[in-house]
Amino acid sequence: MKYIVRSLKYFCYLLVLLTLIILALVLTGFVEADLSKMFVNGYDSLWQIALVMLFFALIYPRFGFSSRTAHLYGSPEELRPDIMKAMEGLGYRLESETDGSYSFLRRSALSRALKMWEDRITVSPSGSGLEIEGLTRDLSRVVSALEATRGDV
């Protein structure tokens, strides 16, 4: 279900982005305001563009969200101060904590909105360290911060 919601959000995001680009082009006079003259195939181009955007929206959650392992060892209680320090330094706040797993959200409302409210980072203990789940583009920064924080101790 989460996959479908993310796909729909991304599809809407792409539609808004395309609309803004077309609007900017029309307002600056680079293209005519008539859609039938704006695109090679006229109005048929709209559904073709929508299909391409749907394709990208359907594959985005597969590549846009993933998990990585931070090589930190110890009990969740031992690691808690280091996790909190690293995540606060990156601009996250604790959303919830259950059984040694932590869920964090961005503090900035603007940052959350730009990420379509899909900014959650989940930190869970695993046999090989800590399993970090969230936006792929944020994971390397989070893993690096966690490992560096633990290295300072």
- What's the number of extended β-strand segments? 5
Helix-strand pattern: HHHEHEEHEEH
Q: Which outline best applies? A: elongated
Low-confidence residue ranges: none
User: Which strand-content bin applies to the residues?
Assistant: 15-25%
Mean of residue pLDDT values:
85
Largest sheet: 5 strands, antiparallel
Q: Count helical runs.
A: 6
Portion of residues within helices: 55-70%
Radius of gyration, in Å, reads 21 Å
Helix vs. strand class: alpha+beta
How far is it from the N-terminal to the C-terminal residue, by CA?
Answer: 40 Å
What is the spatial order of strands in the main beta sheet? Answer: 1-5-4-3-2
